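pinning this so it doesn't scroll away 📌
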Amino acid sequence: DADAHYNLAHLYQTYQNKGAAIHHYQEVLKLEPNNPDVYYNLALAFQNLGHRQEAMECYQRVLSLNSNHFMAHNNLGNLLLHRGYYAHAKEHYYQALSLDLTHAKTISNLLFSLHFDSQLTEEALFQEHKTWAEQIQASVTPFSHYSNSSVFPRQLKIGYLASSFHHHPGAYLLNTLFQEHDRHQYELICF
């Protein structure tokens, strides 16, 4: 029964038994060979095991069955980027963003991939970053009520939020910023 295999596969994947998950996803595909969700989950399991080629093939199969599968585009872009196929990765990030313009992780992936585009000028790269920053800013509702004290002198807490403070060009630029903060006036918190 396909549902039983799918549920077992999901359970195994949840509890980090990717090998068993792969087996059960493959059993589901014998019964339902055109199910994009099963291929997507199989791709995730392969990817988590480091089987990138198999994961790429599964993501490609997902997209052949459902060309509007947002996360398949994003994840395939990540695998292509890792393999050095920057132009193809960029295409998948743009395709994903055509489906959801507000997905910050995909925007970050796209902007990171652009740093490897030898055809892109520094000005064009800057403009791309600026355009996406404006896109994100337009989608955020500003917070207007602050419950903290406005009495000075007090140490101001500054929080930095990033999906990754490593393996990203922006992270290297932040080091200088962090070093320039006066630790007596500011408390830095990184998420």
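📌 and the second one:
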Amino acid sequence: CLVGSEMCIRDSCDIKPENIVFKNYLHDSIVLIDFGISVKLNNTHANVNSYIQTLYYRAPEIILESIFDYTIDIWSLGCIAYEIYYQTLLFDSKTKDYLFIQQNCILDPPSYEFIKKYPPIQTYYDNPKDPSYMLYNNNMYTFKKYDFLRNHQERKITDFVLDCCKWEPTERIIYKDIFSYITSIKNDNNR
């Protein structure tokens, strides 16, 4: 939840566009609503419930049923920023397996260190140490981050999305830096 210019990190939310509303008619601040599937965080929290986030905005650590923290909300925020700006979902998938494949195709594969932590996903890659493509249900999927960048010329939005959607949670943008991005984009729009 937002409190002034500080982030209040208590709960991991089901952050999605439907749960973000304007606080007043001036549209100068927002609030998050619907904490129905939120999870109280201590430092980290084991994923005991596979339905923590709405599928379109789900972070890899939730897909992989791993330990998670508030950075799953940072991932969701990147997906939402993309959706709001481009009026389409960043990852439009109906299953968690295809969502994971889409994440790889758009973001490029994670590092070998990441892949190594999750033995079941190693079979998705032609070579887990240096993947060139993924195989799933007899279909080959190639990595297209270069195409993604070429097709999305608004660099500040794209950089923000990519900084939110890092494979390693510890590499994602931190809350206090989000305000710098927002201020920078807002200043560009006011010119």
